[in-house]
Amino acid sequence: MNPKNSSAIKAEEAMIIDISHHQPSESINYEELAKHVDHAIIRTMDADVIDREYEKHHRKFRAQGVPTAAYAFVRGQNDTHMINEAKMFWDRTKDLNPTFWWLDVEAVTHSDMRKGVSIYVNEMRKHGAEKVGLYIAHHLYERLSLDTSEADAVWIPHYGSGSASADSTPKFPADIHQYTDKGRLPGYVGHLDLNRIISDKPLEYFIGTEGCI
């Protein structure tokens, strides 16, 4: 991988997308899309459902110099499920060496989500994940009551008016703001989830080049 010069990109101007098999590889011109993307966060799985495109998305974006991270939708219904999901996430993605491991928490599945997600985070670290982040549904943030101090970063969706522009800010502290699911970028004909950094963390923190630039 020949990454872009991330040190020349201001954090607030960095374009971050997140994708899954809902954006099929055959519909993406990776060379063109990569010109407009600084970081891609790619879904690995939704519980026991493996994303059909995740390996290809990682390879294709990295071939164009775009650093990639991984995310998994959290579905664990008890402590054992959380442990097992963490192992599946690790096993399916470890060889891709993502820059960040994101746990996507958008549903209340465990009787104590704070405890359950904490177990998941700790299991990821036991397996070797260096940076683990939490994607937290805005409308469930208070109910979930996750221990964000255990995470290396927080990512929150908040779409504001529903347009493709970043015209809102999450009510809760976050490092990355997912501001639309109706984004458009050259290289893909459909809608894309677009994200921006809203904390004082530099882009390098998320793409694994901090201290190496």
Describe this structure in words.
The chain has 213 residues and is α/β, with parallel strands linked by helices. The chain is built from six helices and nine strands; from the N terminus they run E-H-E-E-H-E-H-E-H-E-H-E-E-E-H. The chain has helices spanning 30-34, 54-63, 79-93, 113-127, 141-144, 203-207; strands at residues 16-19, 39-46, 49-50, 68-73, 101-105, 132-136, 153-157, 176-183, 192-197. An eight-stranded mixed β-barrel has the order 1-2-4-5-6-7-8-9. The radius of gyration is 16 Å and the shape is globular. The relative contact order is 0.18. The mean pLDDT is 94. It comes from Salinicoccus kekensis.
What's this, in brief?
The protein is an alpha/beta fold and 213 residues long. The chain is built from six helices and nine strands; from the N terminus they run βαββαβαβαβαβββα.
Protein traits:
N-acetylmuramoyl-L-alanine amidase/lysozyme; 8-stranded mixed β-barrel; single chain; GH; TIM Barrel; lysozyme activity; 6 helices; 213 residues; alpha/beta; Glyco_hydro_25
Secondary structure elements and pairings:
Elements: E1 16-19, H1 30-34, E2 39-46, E3 49-50, H2 54-63, E4 68-73, H3 79-93, E5 101-105, H4 113-127, E6 132-136, H5 141-144, E7 153-157, E8 176-183, E9 192-197, H6 203-207
Parallel strand pairs: 1-2, 2-4, 4-5, 5-6, 6-7, 7-8
Antiparallel strand pairs: 1-9, 2-3, 8-9
